[in-house]
């Protein structure tokens, strides 16, 4: 995603650098790719993690959601810290901390230690994305920024798709620990390249000195209120199903904390001198609608990246590697479409592209509702290809739409909010899909069991045939009856699972469809040519 600094045709900041800007773009994209990759690389390894740490699959899912929440929280503070203490310095600290935390994740000895290290990893990674966008803005003239941000967009959109494939291969052939340890050498390499190639623009140094002279401080109170709201919200969504929702004191307390933090943050952020979050931006039709769309798309991207490999492993018996490979062709389509979308944004109003993209994604989710035991690998590949077509039509145009009309001093804040919306949406999407899956699986199983009664002719006939089948193979009548009951019970469980996944994909399709009217209420923007791809 692009920062708004790439808008308006302003000249890039003179950093006094002779480094090839495309080399800078590749270096920055490498670091961001590594950070975004970690949102999904653990998804297909969750079964290995739960087995290795002796925890339930539900507890293992916290490995994903903890990272997403801490990442979103860090995004809120990243722009101020980068301005106040130096962009390059902050970026290098984040990259180093992310690399160290990744290694510690790979060495984690139990669930609490893994979650703590994932939280640190998420905080460090959250500071890298918006700063990367600012670095690209300073490195390229306006007419080249669209192409530069297409490279950046590939890292942001393709990394979550590559994650399951890479994580699956590593988990199947080595160990889940290497899903995190692999970041060690990559992070060290990226750190060295950033240190030598990226320079701090002189204008930013002057701005930093000016902030020091004026005594501008970070809004710690506002930040803590927003972080508490996001953290409590995640607890409610993630633990609600397990704790039986509001029959649980824990959920009631977490909800109360969430609501109080939200209500307290609004007046504070409206009156603070230098608020951690400019909520007035969220109240505008243009930017607010874009944030909601990004929440929805983040939910679709992350939720499907977790639940498609999950259904392939649990219901179809795929290995983690093959479950991840089902997503890979969609990633290749996304890569190509990023550049196509960049070109289209300079010729077609972003709101129409966003609406088309949301429609394609809704169709992709609706297509997944056809899931049944007879499907083959190709079905999941094609469904992911549709998703790969739609995502770039949202991710690229939404930048041009969301930053249109903003003042220069709102740029960094807007960039942080858009990226935070993507991650927060991903976290909410995983939690909502998990709850829908668990609740609807119980419901379907209850309905199916109602037919397993002696008065049901189909059940009686099925039991008779199965008993006869097992008896012919040497089982006693008592054993044959038990084997038949177990087989019927397993079939009921599997059918309930398929029906629950269908409900999950219906919900995701509805979420995608809701983004279409939101996109159409966006105002038209001034289109610019020159290959900017809407990133001007």
List keywords for this structure.
mainly alpha, disordered C terminus, disordered N terminus, elongated, 536 residues, Growth Hormone, Chain: A
The CATH superfamily label of the largest domain reads: MFS general substrate transporter like domains
Q: Over the alpha carbons, how many angstroms does the gyration radius reach? A: 25 Å
**Shape summary:** elongated
Question: Judging by the overall fold, what is the CATH architecture of the largest domain?
Answer: Up-down Bundle
Q: How do the helices and strands follow one another from N- to C-terminus?
A: HHHHHHHHHHHHHHHHHHHHHHHH
What CATH calls the topology of the largest domain is: Growth Hormone, Chain: A
Fraction of residues in β-strands? under 5%
The domain count comes to 2
How many helix segments?
Answer: 24
InterPro entries: EmrB-like, MFS, MFS_dom, MFS_trans_sf
Organism: Xaviernesmea oryzae
Keywords: Cell membrane, Membrane, Transmembrane, Transmembrane helix, Transport
Membrane topology: Multi-pass membrane protein
Write up this protein.
- This protein is mainly alpha-helical and 536 residues long.
- It has two domains: 410 residues, Growth Hormone, Chain: A; 57 residues.
- The chain is 76% helix and 0% strand.
- It is built from 24 helices and no strands.
- The N terminus and C terminus are likely disordered.
- It comes from Xaviernesmea oryzae.
- One of its GO terms (cellular component) is plasma membrane.
- It is found in: Cell membrane.
């Amino acid at each position: 995603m692009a920062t708004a600094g790439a808008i308006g045709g302003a000249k890039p900041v003179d950093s006094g650098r002779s480094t090839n800007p495309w080399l800078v773009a590749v270096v920055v994209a490498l670091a961001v790719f590594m950070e975004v990759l970690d949102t999904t690389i653990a998804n297909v390894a969750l079964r290995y993690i739960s087995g290795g740490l002796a925890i339930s699959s539900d507890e293992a899912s916290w490995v994903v959601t903890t990272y997403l929440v801490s990442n979103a929280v860090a995004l809120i503070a990243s722009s101020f810290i980068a301005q106040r203490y130096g962009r390059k310095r902050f970026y290098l600290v984040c990259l180093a901390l992310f690399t160290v935390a990744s290694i510690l994740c790979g060495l984690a000895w139990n669930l609490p230690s893994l979650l703590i290290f994932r939280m640190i990893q998420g905080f460090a990674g959250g500071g890298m994305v918006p700063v990367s966008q600012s670095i690209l803005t300073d490195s390229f003239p306006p007419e080249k920024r669209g192409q530069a941000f297409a490279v950046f967009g590939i890292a942001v959109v393709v990394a979550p798709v590559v994650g399951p494939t890479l994580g699956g291969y590593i988990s199947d052939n080595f160990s889940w620990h290497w899903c995190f340890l692999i970041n060690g050498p990559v992070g060290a390499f990226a750190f060295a390249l950033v240190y030598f190639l990226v320079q701090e623009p002189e204008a930013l140094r002057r701005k930093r000195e000016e902030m020091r002279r004026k005594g501008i401080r970070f809004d710690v109170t506002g930040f803590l209120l927003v972080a508490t709201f996001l953290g409590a919200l995640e607890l409610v969504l993630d633990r609600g199903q397990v704790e039986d929702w509001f029959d649980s004191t824990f959920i009631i307390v977490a909800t109360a904390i969430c609501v109080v933090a939200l209500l307290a943050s609004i007046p504070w952020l409206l009156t603070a001198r230098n608020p951690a979050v400019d909520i007035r931006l969220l109240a505008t039709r243009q930017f607010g609608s874009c944030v909601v769309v990004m929440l929805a798309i983040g939910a679709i991207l992350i939720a499907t990246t977790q639940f498609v490999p999950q259904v392939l492993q649990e219901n179809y018996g795929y290995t983690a590697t093959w479950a991840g490979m089902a997503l890979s062709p969609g990633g290749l389509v996304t890569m190509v479409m990023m550049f196509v979308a960049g070109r289209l944004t300079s010729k077609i109003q972003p709101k129409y592209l966003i609406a088309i993209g949301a429609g394609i994604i809704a169709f992709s989710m609706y297509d997944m509702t056809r899931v049944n035991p007879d499907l083959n690998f190709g079905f999941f590949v094609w469904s992911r290809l549709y998703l790969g077509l739609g995502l770039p039509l949202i991710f690229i145009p939404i930048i041009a739409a969301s930053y249109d009309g903003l003042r220069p001093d709102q740029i960094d804040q807007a960039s942080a909010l858009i990226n935070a919306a993507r991650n927060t949406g991903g976290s909410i999407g995983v939690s909502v899909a998990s709850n829908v899956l668990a609740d609807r699986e119980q419901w379907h199983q209850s309905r199916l069991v109602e037919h397993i009664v002696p008065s049901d002719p189909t059940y009686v006939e099925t039991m008779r045939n199965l008993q006869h089948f097992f008896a012919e193979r040497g089982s006693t009548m008592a054993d044959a009856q038990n084997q038949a009951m177990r087989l019927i019970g397993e079939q009921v469980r599997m059918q309930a699972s398929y029906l629950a996944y269908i409900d999950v994909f219906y919900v995701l399709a509805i979420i995608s469809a809701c983004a279409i009217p939101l996109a159409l209420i966006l105002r038209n923007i001034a289109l610019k040519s020159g290959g900017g791809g809407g990133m001007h």
